[in-house]
Every structure is written in C-alpha cells, then in structure tokens.
Amino acid sequence: MVSKIALEEHFLSPGLVEDWLPTVTGVPQAKADQLLQQLMDFGDRRLEAMDKAGIERAILSISGPGVQAERDTAAAIRKAQAANDFLALEIRERPDRYSGLAHLALQDANAAADELERCVRDLKFHGAMINGHTNGQYLDDRALDPFWERVEELGALVYLHPADPVVPAPVLDGHRALRRATWEWGFETGSHALRLVFGGVFDRFPKAKLVLGHMGETLPYLLWRFDSRAELYGVKLAKPPSQYIKENIWVTISGMYSVDPLYCAITALGPERVMFAADYPFESSEEAAAFMDSTPLDEELRADIARNNAEKLLGLT
Ligand code: ZN
Questions:
Q1: 96 C-alpha to ligand 1 centroid (Å)
Q2: Residue 239: which region, alpha, beta or left (left: phi > 0; alpha: psi -120 to 50)?
Q3: pLDDT tens digit string along 17-40?
Q4: What is the total count of domains within the chain?
C-alpha cells in the first residue's frame, strides 16, 4: 500500500453543527447521525480509517458551508475563529497525523486575511478551505483583493470546495438526482474557478495557489475550448486561460475514483499537479485508497500523487 497524504478530509466543531445540518436534509436519519459522529471524532475511529487506507496525514477542514452561510458578519468572524482554535487543539493532540486548513469569514475581506495570517503563522495551518460563494459573493470580487493579497504574501493555499449554488439552475428542474454531487456542484465549482481565471485574479495575484477537488471539476477536459473562446471573445488576460489553470491550480482526486479522468488530469495539468484526497467521511477512505493503490500507474508517479506532490505543495519536508 502506498503511503498517502489526504487533502480534503472533513470535521465539524461544536459551534458549526447547526450550519451543517441543512446539508443532510433528505439523507436517512441513521446515515446523517453516523456522518455527524464521524465528523466530530478525532480519535480511534478516524485514525483507524486512515490506517486502513494508508493515510499517514489528513489535512482537516470544516464540512461546509460553515460561516459562509452566516448573515451576521460579526458572528461569522467569531465562529470561524472558534472553529480554527478548536481544530488547532485537536491537531496538537496528534501533530504526526493531522494538519489544518483555516475556516474564514469572507464577509469581511480584511478580517479573513488577518484570520488566515493567524492560522498560518500561529496555528501552523497550510491555508484555507473556502466552501464556494459566501452569501452569493464569489472569490473574484474585487472587494476580496485584500484577502488574495495576504494569500499570496503567506504562500497559503486556497482549497475551493463545492457548495450549493445561490439558485438552482432551471435545467435541473424536476431532476433531483442531478442536483448536488451528481452534476450541480461540479458546474458550480468549476464555474467559480473559471471566474477567478477569467476575472484576472491570477494576473493580479500570480503566486496564488488554488486547489480543486474532484479531478479539477471538469476543467482539465476543457482547456482547449477555454483558450479558443477567450480569444474569439477578446478576453483581456496576460495569458491564455489554460496557462493559469496549469500554473495556479492543483487538483485532488476526491470523490472521483475513476481512471479516465485521472489520466486526463495528469496529461492536461502535469503529473505534479494531481494529489490524493479521500473526502472523509463522505466517501469511503478504503475505496479511495484501493483506487490509488491499484490504478495502472508508474510507481514513482503513484507515490507522487499519493503523497509527494502534497508534501511539496504544503512544505511538509
Ligand atoms: Zn469534501
């Protein structure tokens, strides 16, 4: 079994349970209860799942939407700080197995930047996980430039995680099974990442590092088309869109344990841009690990995707 670092592993702190509960509406009660227990456990149960999957280190992040759905900005700032302090204490118990990504209240760009700095400098987190839009505001909004400025300054990474759209797209009406993880989240999150590219965020902050789950939310498959249409429509960027996707974006295999998109991501973005994630507890860590361990790959590349690329990106060496 190849040794792994897993980048999209979730937890909940006591103060954010209420914000999370709407995400399991419609999920059978027994399953929702089980997920909640798993999210709040940092002990034997989580460590056993990691051991069985060969995960030496889990990079932990709040299960969304967290404070990003909070309407009261002061409350959002306070709750995010509490969640980060809670995680820091858990990491202190097992620093050999756990690392963290900050939870931020992007309702206030300067407060989010300051909290990111506190989390990176004092709590030794690696960056932040952002759960999609914050009350309808996307990350390319110019009001968030102070946040990106600090991201760049700190060398922190930003993991953009799926969330429900502001309004469901009419094309999905009457097809509940196409909502959320089936298709809706991929479109929402891929579109959000493209707003950053086409909105010039990586021109303004060329050293910003963005991570996407799910093999890149379909972007690696579409690079040619982005470049072709950006040119046709006269998009004003310093480079073709695909260049930013190759230079500023990394992807993980979270929730996409399938060989064809893996090969596409490796070929389109480069072998150093693809990393492992199990998306615990929403996916089976064992299934993720079995895929990582058994997919036909050069052994050196397998070790890079499973572990070494993340070690390098996170500066764990
Ligand atoms: Zn996730």
A1: 22
A2: beta
A3: 999 999 998 899 999 999 999 999
A4: 1
